[in-house]
Write a structure and sequence with these properties.
Elements: E1 2-8, H1 16-31, E2 34-40, H2 46-57, H3 63-87, E3 92-95, E4 102-107, E5 110-116, H4 119-126, E6 130-134, E7 137-139, E8 145-147, H5 153-164, E9 167-172, E10 193-195, H6 196-204, H7 212-221, E11 225-229, E12 237-240, E13 253-269, H8 272-284, E14 292-294, E15 301-308, H9 313-326, E16 331-344, H10 354-364, E17 369-375, E18 378-384, H11 388-398
Parallel strand pairs: 1-2, 1-9, 2-6, 3-6, 9-11, 10-12
Antiparallel strand pairs: 4-5, 7-8, 11-12, 13-15, 13-16, 14-15, 16-18, 17-18
Helix pairs in contact: 1-3, 2-3, 5-7, 6-7, 8-9
The chain binds aspartic acid and magnesium ion (MG).
């Protein structure tokens, strides 16, 4: 019997009615002769509400305790879903990350999976049960509950599929992967297939449909990931190895990321030691830096800008204090009305002129950009949020997305 891993996101299990519908969908698949492992997220906005409660106690809650708290969200949904299977006459068991053998390491709230001990999962599958696993959580070497970072249930699902050597199906509230976020650009097209590389790039650049690390795992272990809508039977998107049939367009997608905080440090004395000091401090706070830019020196001083996630705003304020103690002349400011737009396409590896094309589209539409970065298969621009819609419309139209 083939094993199938299916994952259902928070919206798909947002209400009791929806949990029942998910159970029926899984049962359908089981009846086709498959062994089922089901990974679920917390119901609806549960994780957000748990985090808000923690923030009411402290602006910077203890991270071990935060993991303890937010991991409860998934425990509610696994128990309810498993009960639904029982109610429909199917044998099932819910397992926490720990019970499913998911081992992690790293910093609390940002853990990575190191290994999965499948013995328990396999035992229950053998007994004919539908195994329901809590997404997003695991256990570290100290025996503490850990979580994998926001959206981490996708990673749980793909990691399980990699270990079980089977397909992973991700069910969500959208039809699949789109060329552009359809909430921002209504004419966006659903893609039938996309390569791992492009999906990783799009996910890391802000396409919310899939979590980046999950796609990386799929790529590493060559696990096909099928992304589709939970309710209904519309064909979704297959994320898989790049092949010739995908060739055609140079740009596959445009991603939009609003979670951008731009920090500018003005008046830094022009010495490489000072720049190192700034980024050492940022690194010590576990802040993931995205773009960096620096102005040319003027009268012995430079201005340095970098971007990170808005959730790092608190840590940045701490860093500002520490830096000011070392370099009293600097001025540090944070800007949050920033959006990052990225064009992504594997075709860019062979084709030049994409950056020029985008610069021209911006120029024709009076859009000013602040920073630009490139990778082999993408180019990203930060712009003012107020220009976002205009930029997306213009780019999507010109690039036929
Ligand atoms: N419940 C977690 C979150 O909201 C994990 C997930 O949904 O994948 O981030
Ligand atoms: Mg998600």
């Amino acid at each position: 019997m083939a094993v199938v891993v299916q994952k259902f996101g928070g919206t798909s299990v947002g209400t009791i009615e929806k949990i029942k519908a998910v159970a029926k969908k899984v049962i359908e698949r089981k009846e086709q002769g498959n062994e089922m492992v089901v990974v679920v997220s917390a119901m609806g906005k549960t994780t957000d509400s748990l985090i808000s409660m923690a923030k009411e106690i402290s602006p910077n809650p203890n991270k071990r305790e935060l993991d303890m708290l937010v991991s409860t969200g998934e425990q509610i949904s696994i128990a309810l879903l498993s009960m639904a299977f029982h109610e429909y006459g199917y044998n099932s068991i819910s397992l926490t990350g720990f019970q499913a053998g998911i081992k992690t390491e790293g910093h609390h709230t940002k853990n990575t999976i190191t290994d999965i001990d499948l013995r328990n999962v396999k035992k229950h599958l053998k007994e004919g049960k539908i195994v329901v696993v809590a997404g997003f959580q695991g256990i570290n070497e100290n025996g503490d509950i850990t979580t994998l970072g926001r959206g981490g249930s996708d990673t749980t699902a793909v990691a399980l599929a990699a270990k079980l050597k089977c397909i992973c199906e991700i069910y969500t509230d959208v039809e699949g992967v789109y060329s552009v976020d359809p909430r921002v650009y209504t004419k966006a097209k659903k893609l039938d297939a996309i390569s791992y590389e492009e999906m990783m790039e799009m996910a890391s650049l802000g396409a919310g449909v899939m979590e980046t690390r999950a796609v990386e795992l799929g790529f590493k272990y060559n696990i096909p990931i099928y992304v589709a809508m939970t309710h209904g039977n519309k064909v979704g998107t297959m994320i898989k190895e790049y092949d010739e049939t995908m060739e055609g367009k140079i740009i596959t997608g445009l991603t939009i990321n609003d979670d951008v905080l731009m920090i500018t440090v003005n008046n830094v004395e022009y010495k490489s030691r000072n720049i190192a000091l700034i980024f050492d401090m940022v690194g010590k706070h576990n802040i993931n830096i995205d773009m960096i830019s620096q102005t040319a020196p003027f009268e012995g001083h430079v201005n340095v800008s970098f971007t990170c996630s808005k959730e790092d705003s608190y840590a940045i304020a701490e860093i500002a204090k520490a830096l000011q103690a070392e370099m009293p002349q600097i001025e540090l400011s944070q800007e949050s009305e920033i959006a990052k737009l990225s064009v992504v396409g594997i075709g860019m590896m062979k084709q030049s002129g994409v950056a020029a094309k985008v610069f021209n589209i911006f120029a024709d539409n009076n859009i000013e950009f602040k920073q630009v970065t490139t990778s082999e298969i993408s180019i990203s621009y930060t712009i003012n949020s107020s220009d976002k819609q205009k930029a997306v419309d213009a780019l999507a139209k010109a690039l036929e997305l």
